[in-house]
UniProtKB/TrEMBL annotation:
Gene Ontology cellular component list: Golgi membrane
Protein's name according to its UniProt entry: Alpha-1,3-mannosyl-glycoprotein 2-beta-N-acetylglucosaminyltransferase
Membrane topology, as annotated: Single-pass type II membrane protein
Gene expressing this chain: GNTI_1
A Pfam family hit: GNT-I
Organism: Vitis vinifera (Grape)
Length: 414
């Protein structure tokens, strides 16, 4: 029995013992005394109810449905895995009931298995796949197929065997921001209720520190950012039966017009770019592995220019206090259209100079892929026109950068 319950119980017991003929006494006492006795009894009952309710609430909290399972996808990099686990546990420990943590290892690397099993705060899963891989295109890495198999197996395990309603996928080379879990909890309702949203991501491809400003700002995107992302069971019910043999661009090409939520300032950051990140870069460029490996120092330059400057959010945003309804399908087009309409248009070869010399938000228009890439080079952002013929982070052929508090809105001419 809780201490408050015991005190209340003793008080009730004492009242009962000292007033054995309470009904008779009530008939003989004056109105004031009766009210005082009634108030005393009511106070005791309220105290008993309050303490009992607190106990029940604690029990309810213990059995609450998790917001999402969090799975770290690992293979053979124990050092990176340890760094990722420590980063996640730093912020997950206080919300562990909402976000149960898993490590899913592909293969049998003993150092990875040992590292994962050394943490009591997580559950370990192991995917052992000895089936030979047959690549479909010359020069493809077998790793693409292994990664696809691992993802499908792990997500099937979490959604179907463990019955989670949502899963957040991290790679084994990531660190997360202080508001990572609050962000995903706030976005979970959007993911569940807005069927035009396919997933929620923690990443911004154009999130270099010189192009982001506001950790509170979120956008819808037609482009799948990946890198720390959450999907729901209903989406996985659709994807699992037709999951591709090779990962990852299939998801970027098969979202069926649905969109993604992404932050202005990244909530997750990849620190081990020579691993999965490098493989994905090869795939996105559609280059054979041997040719990509020849890039050598040029990839190092690419990393230093575009990836290393990505800013990981360092502000603990209280997402529970922020209304995210503007991101709904029925509201966001108007919200975004107002941003575009209120921005001042600039044209010509010297758009960078013009943009930096205009007060307020700026709209920079591009004619086609070549024009977009020319402007992107001037600003120093990703100039890759992705395989799906869209620039990163785009929304209806528009995307946004920030220079301080000024929005640079890139839009296609129609």
């Amino acid at each position: 029995m809780f201490s408050h319950q015991k005190d209340a119980h003793d008080s009730v017991k004492q009242l009962h013992v000292t007033k054995p003929h309470s009904l008779l006494m009530c008939q003989n006492m004056d109105a004031v005394s009766f009210v005082q006795l009634f108030a005393q009894a009511l106070g005791i009952l309220c105290k008993l109810f309050h303490s009992t309710w607190k106990g029940l609430q604690r029990l309810i909290d213990k059995v609450q449905e998790p917001v999402a399972a969090v799975v770290i996808m690992a293979c053979n990099r124990a050092d990176y895995l340890e760094r990722t686990i420590k980063s996640v546990l730093k912020y997950q420990s206080s919300v562990a009931l909402k976000y149960p943590l898993f490590v899913s290892q592909d293969g049998a690397d003993p150092s990875v298995r040992s590292k994962a099993l050394s943490y009591d705060q997580l559950a370990y899963m192991q995917h052992l796949d000895n089936e030979p891989v047959k690549t479909e295109r010359p020069g493809e890495l077998i790793a693409y197929y292994k990664i696809a198999r691992h993802y499908k197996w792990a997500l099937d395990e979490l959604f179907y065997k463990n019955n989670f309603s949502r899963v957040i996928i991290l790679e084994d080379d990531m660190e997360i921001a202080p508001d990572f879990f609050d962000y995903f909890e706030a976005a979970a309702a959007l993911l569940d209720n807005d069927k035009s949203i396919m997933a929620v991501s923690s990443w911004n491809d154009n999130g270099q520190k010189q192009f982001v400003h506001d950790p509170y700002t979120l956008y819808r995107s037609d482009f799948f950012p990946g890198l720390g992302w959450m999907l729901s069971k209903s989406i996985w019910d659709e994807l699992s039966p037709k999951w591709p043999k090779a990962y990852p661009l299939w998801l970027k090409e098969n979202h069926k017009g649905r969109q993604f939520i992404r932050p202005e300032v990244a909530k997750g950051f990849g620190v081990g770019w020579e691993g999965y990140r490098f493989n994905f870069m090869c795939l996105e460029k559609r280059l054979p592995v041997k040719e990509t490996l020849k890039m050598g120092s040029s990839f190092g330059q690419f990393f230093k220019q575009y990836l290393e400057p990505i800013k990981l959010n360092d502000v603990r945003v209280d997402w529970k206090s922020i209304d995210l309804s503007f991101l709904r399908e029925d509201k966001y087009p108007r919200h975004f259209a107002d941003m575009v309409k209120n921005a001042k248009p600039v044209y010509g070869a010297d758009v960078v100079l013009k943009a930096y010399n205009i007060d307020g938000d700026v709209r920079i228009q591009y004619r086609d892929q070549a024009d977009f890439e020319r402007i992107a080079r001037q600003f120093g952002i990703f100039e890759e026109w992705k395989v799906i013929s869209l620039p990163s982070c785009i929304y209806f052929l528009f995307f946004i950068l920030k220079i301080g508090t000024t929005c640079l809105i890139y839009g296609a001419l129609h």
